[in-house]
Write a structure and sequence with these properties.
mainly alpha, Arc Repressor Mutant, subunit A, 4 strands, two-stranded antiparallel sheet, elongated, WH-like_DNA-bd_sf, WH_DNA-bd_sf, PadR family transcriptional regulator, 7 helices, Metal_resp_DNA-bind_regulator, 213 residues, 2 domains
Length: 213
């Protein structure tokens, strides 16, 4: 029975993207990802890049093209992308661009769970979130202003622009939620037995209410 081929992780895609430029050793990949802020959209943990490089080599997507040694430093293995790697990268890029994949961010979960907090506590946490979001938006805007001044082609940092836009949208939405709660446009559910969305209340024979999905 054939097993379904697993899609490449975001870190694997980031590695293959770098290898489109030139062959590199893993340490250089790590440094470039941090320099280019790739680690803001890809989880880059110690050792994770080296493990992913080994897996890509095992899949035949990259191959050893050289070894380098500088002074007494350990020997570094330089990897290049294979034709199979290029084809796989292009195929998955098309799929990731065209398809809307499921996403499970923690913020919507926290919004749902937040109804179990007190109104003041909930609002305090939202205000803290907006403060953190404003700081991140401002920091990202500094980077955007810099690359625009350097006339760096937008397609080279289009991913950063997308994340920045998402962050600003989340900030606007959260601030509107705070305003709506403070003004009473969205009332706080005082009755903990209120019917959740997706359920309806029907009358039973004994006159009591019953919730149905």
């Amino acid at each position: 029975m054939a097993t379904e081929k697993q899609p490449l992780t975001t870190l694997a895609m980031a590695i293959l993207e770098l290898l489109h430029e030139r062959p590199m050793h893993p340490y250089e990949m790590t440094q470039l990802m941090r320099e280019r802020r790739v680690d803001r959209r890809v989880k880059l943990r110690p050792g994770s890049l080296y493990h992913t490089v080994e897996r890509l080599e095992g899949q035949g997507l990259i191959e050893v093209v050289d070894t380098q040694r500088q002074g007494r430093r350990p020997e570094r293995t330089v990897y290049g992308m294979t034709e199979h790697g290029r084809d796989t990268f292009a195929q998955q890029t098309r799929q990731m661009l065209a398809e809307v994949a499921p996403n499970y961010p923690p913020y919507p979960v926290a919004l749902s769970a937040g109804a179990e907090l007190s109104p003041d506590d909930f609002l305090d946490q939202l205000r803290m979130r907006t403060m953190n979001l404003r700081a991140q938006v401002a920091a990202e805007q500094v980077v955007i202003d810099k690359v625009e001044d350097e006339r760096l082609p937008r397609m080279y940092w289009i991913d950063f622009a997308f994340v920045h836009h998402q962050r600003k949208s989340e900030l606007d939405w959260t601030q509107q939620l705070i305003d709506d709660l403070e003004s009473g446009r969205i009332p706080w559910p005082d009755d903990k037995t209120a019917t959740p969305p997706g359920q309806s209340v029907v009358d039973t024979e004994d006159g009591s209410d019953e919730k149905t999905s």
